[in-house]
Amino acid sequence: MMLFSEILATLPAIDGIAAIELLDAQTQLQARLDNKPGTAGSVRVYHALLQQYGELNQAAASAGLALYAEHTADARQFPGKHPNIDRLLAIAEQQAATLTLHVVRDSE
């Protein structure tokens, strides 16, 4: 099994991306993942999911949980410790609705 750090290296680069915004069906902002230390890995995961799935739906969330590797088990054991993984767990388990992802470029 690959570690999260190894998986990150295989994902598309996020150069030029300032953040990813997560919007609900009414286009209300639910979360913003800034491309900065501490959340850059999540930006990279969510960006890869956007490229592959076009939205954060159940299939995308399940794929994202696999990308987070060892951190997914930690998130299951300690709810609230990893909010970006908690969100994927809720969507994958159909306890939360599909979200639209919007990329905010550095120039915006």
Gist of the model:
The protein has five helices and three strands; from the N terminus they run H-E-E-H-H-H-H-E. The chain is an alpha+beta fold and 108 residues long. A hairpin with a 5-residue loop joins strand 1 (17-23) and strand 2 (29-34).
Description:
The protein is an alpha+beta fold and 108 residues long. It has helices at residues 4-8, 40-53, 58-67, 70-77, 83-92, and strands at residues 17-23, 29-34, 100-105. It has a three-stranded antiparallel β-sheet with strand order 2-1-3, with helices on one face. Strand 1 and strand 2 form a beta hairpin. It starts with a helix and ends with a strand. The model has no long low-confidence stretch (mean pLDDT 96).
Task: Give a topology summary.
Blueprint: H1 4-8, E1 17-23, E2 29-34, H2 40-53, H3 58-67, H4 70-77, H5 83-92, E3 100-105
Antiparallel strand pairs: 1-2, 1-3
- Based on CA atoms alone, the radius of gyration comes out at 13 Å
| Strand order in the largest sheet | 2-1-3
- Shape label: globular
User: How many E-type strands?
Assistant: 3
- The number of distinct helices, counting runs of at least 4 residues, comes to 5
- Strand residue percentage: 15-25%
For this entry, give a set of tags.
single chain; alpha+beta; 3 strands; globular
